Amino acid sequence: MMAAGMDPRSSWNRITLADLERSLLAPGAGGFLAAGGGEVLGCVGYRPDGDRTLTLNKLATVPQARRLGVGRALVREVEHVARMGGYGRVLLAVSQFNLDVLPFYDRLGYTVTDEPYSHAHPDSPAPVVLVKEVRAEESAPGHPITPLTDKDAP
Predict the structure, then answer these.
(1) Which of 101, 95, 129, 90 is nearest to 15 (CA)?
(2) Rounded to an integer, what distance in angstroms lies between the CA atom of residue 30 and that of residue 46?
(3) Angle at the Cα of 15 from the Cα atoms of 12 and 20, rounded to 5 degrees
(4) Residues in contact with 125: Cβ distance below 8 Å, sequence separation at least 6, in sequence order
(5) Which residues neighbour 50 within 8 Å (Cβ) at sequence distance 6 or greater?
(6) Residue 28 scores a pLDDT above 90
(7) Structural domains present in the chain
(8) Contact at 8 Å (CB) between 92 and 30?
(9) Distance, CA of 99 to CA of 82 (rounded, Å)
(10) What's the pLDDT score for residue 20?
(11) How would DSSP label each residue in 74-118?
C-alpha cells in the first residue's frame, strides 16, 4: 500500500497476507475492488461485528483515482451490504496517521464515536472511530443485493 501513498507508519504497512485472509475471508466478510482501464483503482473490505454492526476496513485508493468518486463508491457498496444484511450501522476506524481523510467520511455522514476499535493494531496509536447509522433492510428471496453501477458514482 506504500504505492497507494499510505503513510509508512500506517498499520497498512504491517499487514500480512494472513492478516488479510483472516479479515476478508472470515464468515460474513467480504470486499470490493474498483477497477478501470485494466488497473485496480481501489479496494475496501467489511466484516460483521455483532448483529447490528458491519465494520468497513481496508479502504484504499491509488493516488490517481482520488477525488474521482472511487472511494465514495466503495464505501457506498459496503453501506449497501449493511442495509441488505439487516445491519443498523457501519463502523470504521481511521489511523492517527491518516486524519486528512476525516472530512471525506464526514461528507458521507459518518460521525466520531468514543467506542473502542477492537481490531486496532497493537503497535499503532488508537484510531479515530466513526459510525454511520443505516436503515437495515432484510434481503429477501427474489431481491438479491444489487451492485451499484457507474451511474451511482459521483
Answers:
(1) 95
(2) 6
(3) 110
(4) 95, 96
(5) none
(6) no
(7) 2-137 (3.40.630.30)
(8) no
(9) 24
(10) 58
(11) HHHHHHHHHHHBT-SEEEEEE-TT-GGGHHHHHHTT-EEE----T
Q: What is the pLDDT of residue 27?
A: 76
93, 112, 105: which is closest to 23 by C-alpha? 93
Beta bridge partners of residue 93, listed in sequence order: 129
What pTM was estimated for this model as a whole? Answer: 0.77
Asked if residue 78 lies in contact with residue 49, where contact means CB atoms within 8 angstroms, the answer is no
Q: Average pLDDT in the 38-57 region?
A: 91
Residue 144 confidence (pLDDT) above 70: no
Greater confidence (121 vs 152) lies with 121
Residue 68's contacts (CB-CB under 8 Å, 6 or more residues apart) are: none
Grid coordinates belonging to 59: 479502504
Assigned C-alpha cell, 18: 494472513
